[in-house]
Design goal:
The protein is of the alpha/beta class. It contains eight helices and seven strands; from the N terminus they run E-H-E-H-E-H-E-H-E-H-H-E-H-E-H. The chain has one domain: Spore Coat Polysaccharide Biosynthesis Protein SpsA, Chain A, CATH 3.90.550.10. Bound molecules: guanosine-5'-triphosphate (GTP) and magnesium ion (MG).
């Protein structure tokens, strides 16, 4: 089985080496426990937004394939990364050492074992004390509540009938589902867009608890600006969805 780990980076020289080494250690442990035929063949893609520090050198030195995406945006970087990934399974993580990349091989095994299409990590389950600022925490809560209210009928399809962390950026999924998802966002909104698209298409998805740690290096996110953009996106997408559902109902109604 081939899998791709995709990591967007913008000036993460302090942490990217650590992230890639931690991941490699986890892959080696997974290989030791697997029969040769069951080993996962990994490719690691770093989608770099023209970092001005040593991120690219650090990533290449650890065997990652670096794709330069000069257009700005977290979502833009992921959409470019997904198009460049060759694995049947794609996993994602930030390059700032916040996400537990060591859990990724195990999550791929779980995706296979449970015949799932999409797994997303719930960072709020084991949040390290300084991993999120107060603004960030409040913003997340507002966005999670809004997602739960606006998308209730789709979120209810999850095993716990709720999405605890709409903003998480650690996912493991089958590449083939990308043909069905409409991913349009170039900013942080991609993180909620991908989950909503998975749910409205009725794909087999689950949320798993993961640790989330304090970031290394300077934040790229602006809690207020990105939070408001995410909120506007949630509302606009729901309005559009309602319009499409209404059109479908009209088309299906007998003349
Ligand atoms: N290629 C690319 N990567 C980006 C861009 N903006 C952010 N990133 C990377 O995307 C990942 C997520 O960005 P973060 O700044 O960590 O956002 P966040 O996790 O929501 O916020 P923090 O809690 O501050 O870490 C990091 O690895 C960033 O380096 C961009 O414009 N282009
Ligand atoms: Mg981060």
């Amino acid at each position: 089985m081939r899998a791709s780990l995709v990591i967007p980076t913008l000036n993460e020289e302090r942490s990217i080496g650590h992230v890639l080494e931690t991941f490699r250690g986890a892959v080696e442990a997974d290989d030791r426990n697997a029969a040769p035929a069951d080993r996962i063949e990994w490719e690691v893609l770093v989608i770099d937004g023209r970092s001005t520090d040593r991120t690219v050198e650090e990533a290449r030195a650890r065997g990652a394939r670096v794709v330069v995406e000069p257009r700005r945006g977290y979502g833009r970087a992921y959409r470019t990364g997904f198009a460049s990934a060759s694995g049947e399974i794609i996993a994602t993580s930030d390059g700032d050492a916040t996400y537990p990349v060591e859990t990724i091989p195990g999550l791929v095994r779980r995706l296979e074992r449970e015949h799932l299409d999409f797994i997303t990590g719930n960072r709020l389950a084991y949040l390290a004390p300084r991993a999120m600022s107060t603004e960030h925490r409040i913003g997340n809560r507002v966005l999670n509540l809004t997602t739960g209210l606006l998308y209730h009928r789709w979120v209810a399809r999850l095993p716990e009938a709720t999405l605890h962390d709409s903003q998480s950026g650690l996912w493991v999924f089958r590449r083939k589902i990308l043909d069905r998802l409409r991913l349009t966002q170039s900013g942080m909104q991609l993180s909620e867009e991908i989950k909503i698209e998975v749910l409205i298409h009725g794909l087999r998805a689950t949320e798993v608890p993961i640790p989330y740690r304090e970031r290394w290096g300077a934040p790229k996110l602006s809690s207020w600006r990105d939070g408001m953009a995410n909120l506007r996106f949630l509302i606009a997408k729901r309005v559009q969805l309602e319009r499409e559902l209404r059109e479908e109902r009209t088309d299906a109604a007998p003349a």
